[in-house]
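hey so i finally got around to running the thing on that chain from the lab meeting. sorry it took forever, my laptop kept dying and i had to restart like 3 times. anyway pasting the input first so we r on the same page abt which one it is
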Amino acid sequence: MEGKRSPELFIMTHNPGKINEYRALLAPLAIPLRFPADIGSQVQVQEDEETYAGNATRKARAGLQVSGLITLADDSGLEVDALGGAPGVRSARYVPGSDADRIAALLSRLDGVPWERRTARFRCVIAIATPEGELYTVEGVCEGFIATTPAGTGGFGYDPVFYLPQFGRTMAELPPETKNRISHRARAVAAAMPILQRLFHRTER
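ok and heres what got predicted. didnt touch it at all, straight out
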C-alpha cells in the first residue's frame, strides 16, 4: 500500500545504558526500534535548554528530522534537595569527566549533610514527535536518598549513589528487571505507552 508508514519507533539516544533500557522497557510495544547507529546518524543535539522537556523536545525533533519516523527522546536528571535541586537538568554535565567524576563531586558537596536531608529524586521527561507535527511529553519520577559512598556496578550515571530505602540498595545494586520496573525512565515509559500504542495503531489502519 503506497504511502503506508513503516511501524518503527526511532529512539534518539547514543547512550548505551539508555539503549539497553529502552529495548527492555519498550518490548511490550512489539514495534521495531531504531537508534541513530542503525541509520548511520551521528547527529549530536546540544542539550542547553533550561528544562528537561526543552531538551527532550529538541532531541525528539532532531531524531524525527533524520529518521522520518515517530521519534522518542528523553532528558533526565538527579535532583538533590540539599543542593537546591542540583544537579538537575545539568546532571550529565555537572562537572567535566566521567560518571565517577560527577559522583565524586556530588558526594563532596554533600559531605557532612545528615542522612535525613539527603533526599533526592531521579526525574525523566520523554518527548514524542510525529511526522504529522504532533508533540507529546510525559514524566516519571523515582524518589530516594543519596548514599554516602557508591555501591553496585549496574546501571549508569548516578545509580551507584541513589539509594532506595524500600530495597535497602542503590539503583546500581538492583537487578535490571527490578530497575526497569521502578526507575524514573520506567515510569515515564509507562506514561508514554498509551500514546505510542495509539500512534502505532493509527499507522496500521
